[in-house]
Amino acid sequence: AQSVTQLDSHVSVSEGTPVLLRCNYSSSYSPSLFWYVQHPNKGLQLLLKYTSAATLVKGINGFEAEFKKSETSFHLTKPSAHMSDAAEYFCVVSEGGGGNKLTFGTGTQLKVEL
Amino acid sequence: SAVISQKPSRDICQRGTSLTIQCQVDSQVTMMFWYRQQPGQSLTLIATANQGSEATYESGFVIDKFPISRPNLTFSTLTVSNMSPEDSSIYLCSARTGETQYFGPGTRLLVL
Question: A35 and A63 in contact (C-beta within 8 Å)?
Answer without folding.
Answer: yes
